Structure formats: C-alpha cells, structure tokens
Amino acid sequence: MDLFGDLSLRDKVNPFVQLLWDKGSLYEREVINELKIEFTDLSQYSLDEKEQKTTEAMDRKDPLIYSGRIKVGDLLGDPDLLRLENGSYIAGDIKSGAGEEGGEDEEGGKPKPHYAVQLAIYTDILNRLKRSNESRAFVWDIHGREVPYDFKALYGTRRPHTLWQDYQEALTSVRRIVSNPDETRGAYSAVCKMCVWYTACLKQLSDNKDLTLIPGLGRSKRDVLVDSFENIPELAEANPSGYFNGNKTIFKGIGPDSLEKFVDRARLIATDGKPYLREPITLPVADKELFFDIEVDPMRDLCYLHGFVERNNGANDTEKFVYFFANEETKECEEEAFRGAWQYIQNSQPAAIYYYSKYERTIYRKLQQKYPSVCSGQDIEDLFASELTKDLYFNVVLKSTEWATRDYSLKTLAKYLGFNWNDAHPSGAASIEWFDQWVKTRDPKVRERIMVYNEDDCRATRVLLDGIRELT
Ligand code: SF4
Question: Are 79 and 110 contained in the same domain?
Fold first, then answer.
C-alpha cells in the first residue's frame, strides 16, 4: 500500500503507535548517551550524507558506528550499530522491547522473526559489500542485555529452519510485491486497527465483500478458499458437504466443522441476519452483578485501573461505577489499586462477575505474584473458576453465539446492540496513550477520559450480556 496505494487515503498515525515509536527513539537515545565506550556518531547527518559517512567510517575501521546507512543493489539498511569484530562489521539494533519472545521472564526465549529479518538485511548488505564474512547480528534490548542472532542456527522441531531462510523468504516475497502490485491483497485482522491504511483497506474489503470479514476466517484460510469462493455471498451459497473428503475437506487446513461454521457465518452476514445461539448457554444468576474491566500499560508493566459497573437486581437504574486507579506509576500505587479492587470484589460477594477475554485472569495472576500480601494464588484461581464468574468472550460469545459482524470484539458487538462510547476514539491502546499523558501532565481531564472510557467498556459488557440473554 505504501508503494502503490493512494497516499492521500492514509489515516493519521495511531497515537498509540506514535507513542511506541517515541518510546523506541527515547530508549535508543538513553542507551547511546550512557555508552561508556567510544563510538562514531552519524545521527546528526542527513540520510544521503549518512551513507557516505558510514563508508568512510568503515574504511577507517572505526570500532563502533552509531546510526549508519548501508546500501547495495536494491537493499538498503539503517542499522543502529555497526561493530567491528576481527575485521568484520556486525550489525546491531537497539530495541525498547525484549530481545527474544516466549520463555520465562524473558529468559530462554526464541529470536523474534521481525527482528531477525531486519538484522538479516543489514548482514546481507555487509556481506555483499565485503565488509563482513559473518552471519550473525545482535540486539541490545530493554533489559540491558545483548541478545545474539545467529542466522545459521536451526530453530523449530516440526520444520527446522534457519533465520536466514526466514529472511530469504521475506525478501523474495517483498521483491514479488514490489515488482507485481496486483498480487497483494488486504486481509482484515486485529492489526489493521493500528495501521494507517485501515480506512482505505476496510472500504476495499467491504466493497469486495472479502472473506476475511467473516470472524475467524483470516488471510491464510481466505487464500485457500478464494479460488472456489471469491466473496461472502459466494460462500453463503455453498453446500459445505459437497467439499467434504472423509474427515477433512478439499481445503487445506479447514476441517468440515470449520467449513460449515464459515458458511453459516457467511449466510448470516450476507443476509444481515439476527444473531443467534449455536447451543444452549447457562449464565450465572445473582442479585448483584459486576461488569469488570482492567487497563494495563505493558510498557511500564503496570495495571493502572480496575473498573467495575455494579448492577443490582437486574435494574439498570441501580448501576454505579466503582474504580481503583493507580494515581502514580509506582508499584506502591499499583498494589494499592489491586488491594482496593480485591477487597471490593470480596465485599460484593455473592456476585456474578463478567469480563471479556482471558486478559483479566492473566493479569490478576500476575498481580497476585507481585503482591502476595493482597491475596493467595488459590484465591485468584477460586475467583476465576467460580460458576458465578464468566468470561463472556471465551465461554459464551466465541463458543455459543453467531453475529452478523466482522469480528467479535466488545466494541463491535456492543455497538451492534446500539451502545455508544462517549469517547470518539475509544480503544485499549488509546487508554494506554492517555495514561502516558496523565503521567507526564497530571491533567485531570486526561484522567477523566481514562475513567469514562473504562466505565463505558464495563457498561458495554453489561449491554452485551443483556443482548446475549435475549438470543434464542
Ligand atoms: S490489510 Fe490491514 S494491516 Fe494490511 S495494509 Fe490493510 S489495514 Fe494495514
């Protein structure tokens, strides 16, 4: 899209994405400012000048070059670092995230494929320029560690492969895109909401009635189905059993049950049909109901808000919003908010508790480990295992309901049911950006915006519950 799309159709950069970029630049600066070793700083030069200056620095055999630019053929790279080791330059990047993914406490993880591809292009250029004969690079990560990236090592047990193979595949794919624009095709997914092409792509996908607008049917399944069914109306007309082949279907990676489900969803969307239950559901019955939602800043690793909308006897006019906010970005304030929320939950018993996605449970387990004096691990397990506590997303919406919408997010479903958020641009990511503003400015209006958004999310959960109760 950046190469071939109409640039005037790009959305503004999402403020949360901007925040991530800013944090990344800030962290890079911090690391560089604290470097105790000598290095060649090219950051003040223009992009064109950088390439020349990098060449000169490498000719001089400067031991460490910061913010260089290297180029060969159609490959171009802006490595944060170039370090001379035994006559070869090794590329490195400074990352404001962990250098690896998975693993306990960031230890024992695996290389991140997107980091690997970025580092591999630098390494490829250095090799082609005969500035290096190494096939490795490194990351200086947020934990102050140097994480090596070895492009020859084998990863994976089912399909052992090297990071260099990943890079070669990505490079081939990018070159194909660059040379043949007609080959690419958008696909609706969660990441689209953060992308500057969101509005443009969504319009195109909606105009084409693209199959990825069916919940759960992503890019790979669309690409398998698309030769037989170009769009949603065509899939809606399908007779699924005609494509069964024993206990599989003729479509790779799509079983008979999934195909039937996707055809059902296509029919519902094509006819703008009413939502319905796939199977009977049991919902908790209690006089008191709590609709619960938390806000977390992953960059500060801080749960800054626990919000509850409380309703009694099913009467909406009894609703009240109760919240526990970490006024400052400190562990003490996070613990106080967690303690307050936990006590509130205890004092509200017996109560049915509704939340949307496993996130709340994950974060509560983490908070309990951080602050064991608030409650025990068993207390958390008991709370979330209780019959009165319901994850509306996993246990109800995903498992047992069908909607004529393009996804099953709380925003989409509550809006479908007529609920409107007070904020014009509500999202969890936006809330994190507001919290960052709050930390920097202590502006009460920003704090209020965070609260209003969280309250709306809690209330939307209630609207969704009531909507589900009416389904047949
Ligand atoms: S399909 Fe989604 S992620 Fe890809 S360009 Fe379009 S909006 Fe961005």
Answer: yes
At 104-154, the pLDDT tens digits run 444 568 899 999 999 999 999 999 999 999 999 999 998 899 999 999 999
Supply the pLDDT for residue 146.
Answer: 96
Ligand 1 centroid to Cα of residue 447, in Å, is 32
Q: Is the CB of 190 under 6 A from ligand 1?
A: no
Kindly provide the b/e burial profile for residues 221-247, where b requires at least 16 CB atoms within 10 angstroms of the residue's own CB. Answer: bbebbbeebebbebbbebebeebeeee
Mean pLDDT of 443-461: 97
Residue 293 pLDDT class (50, 70, 90 cuts): very high
Q: Answer whether 186 contacts ligand 1 (Cβ < 6 A).
A: yes
CA 413 to centroid of ligand 1, rounded, Å: 22
Ligand 1 contact, 192 CB (< 6 A)? yes
Q: Are residues 117 and 215 in the same domain?
A: no
Q: Ligand 1, from 173, 177, 191: best to mutate by most atoms within 8 Å of Cβ?
A: 191
What range defines the domain where residue 230 resides?
200-273
Asked if residue 364 and residue 315 are part of one domain, the reply reads yes
Let me know if residue 421 belongs to a domain: yes
Kindly state whether residue 33 falls inside one of the protein's structural domains.
yes
* pLDDT at residue 157 tops 50: yes
> Does residue 2 lie in a domain region?
no
**320 and 465 housed in the same domain:** yes
- Sign, Cα dihedral of 183, 186, 189, 192: positive
| 342 plus 452 within the same structural domain | yes
Task: Note the pTM of the prediction, 2 decimals.
Answer: 0.86
Decide whether any atom of ligand 1 lies within 6 Å of the 198 Cβ.
yes
CATH number of the structural domain spanning residue 380: 3.30.420
Q: Which atom of ligand 1 is nearest to the CA of 201?
A: 6
Query: Does ligand 1 come within 6 angstroms of the Cβ of 371?
Result: no
Q: How many structural domains comprise the chain? A: 3
Whether residue 212 sits in one domain with residue 97: no
- pLDDT single digits (tens) 183-225: 788 999 999 999 999 999 999 999 999 999 999 999 999 999 9
Say if 1 falls within a structural domain: no
**C-alpha of residue 40 to centroid of ligand 1, in Å:** 38
Which tokens belong to 215? Answer: 């919940």
Amino acid identity, position 424: A
Query: Which residues have CB under 8 Å from 121's CB, separation 6+?
Result: 75, 77, 167, 171
- Burial status of residue 130 (CB atoms within 10 A of its CB: 0-12, 13-18, 19 or more): exposed
